[in-house]
Design brief:
The complex is a heterodimer of chains A (449) and B (516). Chain A is mainly alpha-helical and 449 residues long. Chain A has two domains: 24-175 and 253-435, ABC transporter involved in vitamin B12 uptake, BtuC; 185-251, no CATH class. Chain A is built from 19 helices and two strands. Chain A has a two-stranded antiparallel sheet with strand order 1-2. Chain A starts with 11 loop residues before the first helix and ends with a helix. Chain B starts with 5 loop residues before the first strand and ends in a 10-residue tail after the last helix. Chain B has a six-stranded mixed β-sheet, with helices on both faces. In chain B, strands 18-21-22-15-23-24 form a six-stranded mixed β-sheet, with helices on both faces. Chain B has three domains: 6-244, Rossmann fold; 250-344 and 431-449 and 461-516, 3-Layer(aba) Sandwich (Rossmann fold); 352-428, no CATH class. Helices cover 32% and strands 27% of the residues of chain B. In chain B, a hairpin with a 2-residue loop joins strand 4 (63-68) and strand 5. In chain B, helix 4 crosses helix 5. Chain B is globular. The chains are: A mainly alpha (449), B alpha/beta (516). At the A-B interface, helix 8, helix 11, helix 12, helix 18 and helix 19 of A face strand 2, helix 11, helix 12, strand 20 and helix 14 of B. The structure holds adenosine-5'-triphosphate and magnesium ion (MG). Adenosine-5'-triphosphate sits between chains B (17, 20, 22, 40, 42-48, 91, 400-401, 410-415, 442) and A (5, 421, 424-426).
């Protein structure tokens, strides 16, 4: 009967570019925020006279921000599902003090203490997940309560004092990849890591092209893959040399490796598994999800529980880095994580967001923090700037969505026809009002009937 | 009617989305005081054209010119088109369920005195406006508590409040039953008498034929022709010929039913209203479905058909009170949707936007979303299989899109409906419950969907069709149950089913019903 509308070629290269960083509707936004990150890094590199991309500074950057980025991984899943978690900072602090006490007072070996921390995170997560998923109290309230409860618990069990952790434990927060082999002026461990990453990237790209071929789906042209690989490999080589070439005894931080593994694992979970699909389904339209057989309570439960487990990981890394756990740990972490997620393109109403986007969003904040400090900007002004960046990033996103244009890059490459309505005008035009109404009614249906 | 001046002229409108040319050089001329209909298949570009006209897609995002009341207009947004007297009522209603009728009518347009909303005036004006559309409901009623038919009228009341000159209705009767539809059509005719022109989009061709003065037909984003209803002697077949480019021999595909044993049975099903405990929405209902049988559920809006279906489908509606379900002679428990799906049930909701689809999702992911287990191993989804399956359904159901890797929100309404159908066909159910399956679907696609229903039945599956369109039920069903106020009132074999009998049983209780 009716022919399929003809594919338009004009906007082809633009979409192909978008495909470089994953398909799907949100690729335009991710591309935009990635561009912003690059711009910010270049800016600070110049403004600080090369101090930003200096090995010591980069190592610091990773060490200082690994735990917030780990929180962002869990937070984006919570936000995709349509919730929020305000308790992560307090949970991190509470787990931190318990783990520290277990080692300092009860003489637990570090490995056992870490297991204790994870178990504690799981129990706390199950507690909060139960309230959200099965009782139906909005996550905002449950985690606001959790924020108070676990902050208090931190101070109660820690007597509001600082507990020092043994040297061996600090490895996960301040340690580096061990060096080995001949002296090359570089850390061989880091070189090896870089090599592995470089190979994995190539294999990945090759595999994804192969699946695309077997599917016969719209494949990005070869040049896109090649350019993408060239850029990524150049970045890997550059970063490897930077990290490997720092002061003697330093190399790529262990906390960075933990973060990297978590990012890979959770990207896989959210993108490829049924559980991941279900998180998006619940956040996008929980009633439709329910009628499609998704067990939405179970999803909500595990998403909340997972967040607390990651908060415990972040808490332990934070303690390990500082060498001690104290009553002021983790204050404000939840806000940094939430900001990272939204700068990374997640939607307030749920259903939209990616792990990688949130990490990039977190890096934007991290680089800003770091660069401003290097420039000697005081903490008060740093906060003001961070707040404005969050507002502007999300503002541009909302605006471009309303205009039917895809985010930052869309504004930069202002070719009206090409960028028009990539986000799909029909839905977003009514989205804010409608979804907020939905969000407020969400808990109702998560209560048992 | 020759001398009527034109109120609107859209000249060579072209509108492109990434990868899709939704409109190419479309022209439309509407005379003052006429009812002008736009017909075309799903995805022909009807809604898009109206969104261009009403400023949803602002000036600059399309090519071409719009001349309205003799002047070229360039609307920036909906507000500016409304200021000019053009009001659009969208395919998907835009009322806020939690607010009252009054609040909805005056939303964004509240009468004020000294900066404070004057609710007294608002209310009295609301009563006045409601009277004009023939409603006598309390204006304080919340929107969610009135039926879709009345909601549609509230939308029109809202338009009247904006002193509308050109009213655009995008599939206004899609969700209405025949009496509500008729009421709405009469109202539109009444407005015409008062000098308000209307542009109407509908897939219900009988309505188009009934009220239009002229009809513009779109196909694949192009204007095919404009028909003058009075002088051209236009009938439904003529419209269809314009829409699909050929004659459609009949509305229903031929079929010789091959009906087997009873395999699905519901006994004494009773369900309580979720909020009002004393109200039973489904009362002691029993019915059976045989293999290879297409069973119709007829009833008025609010009779409890959807509630019956949803409560069986994993207790998705209301509070379960009593009843049993048997499949192949064994009692089965359907306490959750996943249990229902595992037992071979599928339910295609009547409300695709709220209950059928996640509009943020991709087409391919939506299609497989109800049975991911079918394409995953160790809970990991096989992307290649997902794509291949989605492609298969795209071809089978002729879902109009350049790629299944796009978002479902980029599809036209009718094509979204096809995605919902695909989603449930993919679960390979034994019993498929279709709630208003052809709502918003064009004639050609309807024929295809009937074909699909018949094919499923021929494969030995049972199909239940809930529909407010009596001709559709009569045309496709092997047997019809009528439902009135939550109870099954009759069980009519196809041979005995005629509109009068069905209608009578839809509107009255009957003591004894033969169950099989
Ligand atoms: N926001 C969008 N992004 C991309 N494509 C779109 C968008 N909106 C509509 N389209 C495409 O434009 C074409 C026309 O869509 P439109 O909604 O106007 O159809 P329609 O005639 O109203 O169909 P229906 O009868 O199904 O409602 C379709 O191919 C559709 O997929
Ligand atoms: Mg439409």
């Amino acid at each position: 009967m009716s022919a399929v509308p003809e594919e338009k070629k004009k906007s082809g290269w633009y979409r192909d570019l978008g495909k470089m960083f994953g398909a799907g509707q949100s690729s335009g936004r991710q591309l935009g925020i990635l561009g912003a990150l690059v711009v910010i890094i270049i800016f600070f590199q110049i403004a600080t006279g090369g101090l930003t991309l200096d090995p010591t500074n980069l190592i610091n950057l990773v060490n200082q921000n690994a735990y917030v980025l780990i929180l962002a991984i869990g937070m984006v899943m919570v936000i995709i599902a349509g919730h929020i978690d305000l308790s992560v900072g307090s949970i991190a602090a509470f787990v931190g003090i318990m783990v520290a006490t277990s080692m300092a007072s009860w003489h637990f070996p570090p490995a056992v203490a870490i297991l204790l921390g994870l178990a504690l995170g799981a129990v706390i997560g199950a507690w909060q997940g139960m309230w959200v998923a099965y009782v139906g109290v909005p996550a905002f309230i449950v985690t606001l309560a959790g924020m108070l409860i676990f902050r208090g618990a931190n101070q109660f069990f820690g007597n509001s004092t600082t507990v020092v952790v043994p040297q061996s434990f600090t490895f996960i927060g301040g340690g580096f990849i061990r060096d080995f082999g001949p002296n090359t002026n570089y850390s061989n461990g880091t070189l090896l890591l870089g090599l592995i990453v470089a190979i994995v990237i190539i294999v990945q790209e090759w595999r994804s092209r192969r699946t695309q071929t077997t599917m016969g789906s719209q494949k990005a042209p070869l040049w896109v893959s090649i350019v993408k690989l060239a850029i990524l490999e150049a970045l890997v080589v550059y970063a490897t040399l930077l990290f490997a070439g720092g002061r003697l005894g330093t190399s790529f931080p262990i906390s960075g490796i933990i973060l990297g593994i978590l990012v890979l694992a959770y990207s896989f979970v959210t993108r490829r598994t049924t559980f991941g699909r279900h998180i998006y389904a619940v956040g996008g339209n929980w009633r439709a999800a329910e009628l499609s057989g998704v067990k939405i309570r179970r999803i909500n439960f595990f998403v909340m529980m997972n967040m607390s487990i990651l908060a415990s990981v972040a808490g332990m890394i934070g303690v390990a880095r500082a060498g001690a756990s104290g009553p002021g740990d983790g204050v404000g972490w939840e806000l940094d994580a939430i900001a990272a997620v939204f700068i990374g393109g997640a939607a307030v109403a749920g259903g939209i967001g990616t792990i990688v986007g949130s990490i990039v969003g977190g890096l934007v904040i991290a680089v800003l923090n770091n660069g401003l400090q290097l420039l000697g900007v005081t903490i008060d002004r740093v906060q003001i700037i961070k707040g404005l960046v969050l507002l502007i990033a999300v503002g541009i996103d909302v605006y471009s969505k309303k205009q039917g244009r895809p985010s930052l890059i869309g504004l930069m490459t202002r070719n009206r026809r090409a960028s028009e309505a990539a986000a799909g005008l029909e839905a977003p035009a009514v989205e804010p009002a409608e979804n907020s109404a939905e969000a407020s009614s969400r808990p109702k249906s998560t209560t048992p009937n | 009617m020759q001398a009527e001046p034109t109120i609107l002229e859209m000249r060579s409108i072209t509108k492109e989305f990434p990868g899709v040319k939704a409109l190419s050089n479309v022209s439309l001329t509407v005379s003052a005081g006429e009812i002008h209909s736009i017909c075309g298949e799903n995805g022909a570009g009807k809604s898009t054209l109206m969104k261009v006209l009403s400023g949803v897609y602002p000036f600059g995002t399309y090519d071409g010119t719009i001349v309205y009341q003799g002047e070229e207009v360039r609307f920036r947004d909906i507000r500016s088109s409304e200021a000019a007297g053009i009001v659009i009522i969208h395919q998907e209603l835009a009322l806020i369920p939690e607010l009252s009728i009054t609040e909805n009518i005056f939303l964004g347009n509240e009468p004020r005195r000294g900066g404070v909303i004057n609710w007294v005036e608002a209310k009295s004006r609301a009563i006045e406006l409601l009277a004009r559309v023939g409603l006598s409901d309390d204006p304080d009623t919340q929107i969610k508590n009135i039926g879709v038919g009345k909601q549609q009228l509230v939308e029109i009341a809202k338009a009247l409040n904006k002193s509308v000159k050109l009213l655009i209705l995008d599939e206004p009767t899609a969700a209405l039953n025949s009496s509500d539809s008729q009421h709405l059509l009469d109202l539109i005719l009444g407005l015409k008498g008062k000098g308000i022109s209307s542009i109407m989009i509908s897939h219900k061709l009988n309505e188009i034929e009934q009220i239009s003065d002229s009809i513009t037909i779109l196909r694949d984003g192009k204007t095919i022709e404009t028909l003058d209803v009075k002088s051209d002697g236009v009938d439904e077949d003529r419209i269809i010929r314009g829409m699909v480019g050929r004659n459609l021999e009949s509305r229903f595909p031929d079929r010789t039913p091959n009906i087997g044993e009873i395999f699905f049975e519901v006994r004494n099903w009773t369900v309580q209203h979720p909020q009002v405990p004393e109200r039973m929405v489904v009362k002691d209902s029993s019915f059976v479905v045989r293999r290879g049988e297409i069973v119709g559920f007829a009833g008025l809006m609010g009779a409890g058909r959807t509630e019956l279906a949803m409560s069986i489908f994993g207790r998705s509606y209301g509070n379960f009170i009593s009843g049993e379900v048997y499949k192949d002679g064994k009692e089965i428990k359907l306490r959750s949707v996943s249990e229902a799906i595992d037992n071979g049930l599928a339910y295609v909701s009547e409300d695709r936007k709220a209950l059928g689809l996640n509009l943020l999702d991709l087409i391919k992911s939506s299609i497989v979303s109800s049975k991911l287990s079918k394409i995953s191993r160790w809970d990991v989804v096989n992307d290649a299989k997902e794509f291949a399956i989605a492609e298969q359904y795209r071809k089978d159901l002729r879902i109009k899109t350049p790629s299944v890797e796009r978002g479902v929100s980029t599809l036209s309404g009718g094509n979204q409906q096809k995605v919902v159908l695909a989603k449930w066909m993919f679960t390979d159910p034994d019993l498929l419950i279709l709630d208003e399956p052809t709502r918003g679907i064009d004639v050609g696609a309807k024929y295809e969907i009937y074909g699909i229903i018949q094919r499923l039945a021929a494969e030995g599956k049972g199909v239940i069709v809930i529909s407010s369109e009596l001709p559709e039920l009569l045309g496709i069903s092997d047997r019809i149950y009528t439902i009135f106020e939550g109870a099954i009132t009759s069980n009519i074999p196809a041979a005995e089913a005629d509109p009068e009998t069905v209608m009578k049983n839809m509107t009255s209780t009957k003591k004894k019903v033969a169950q099989r």
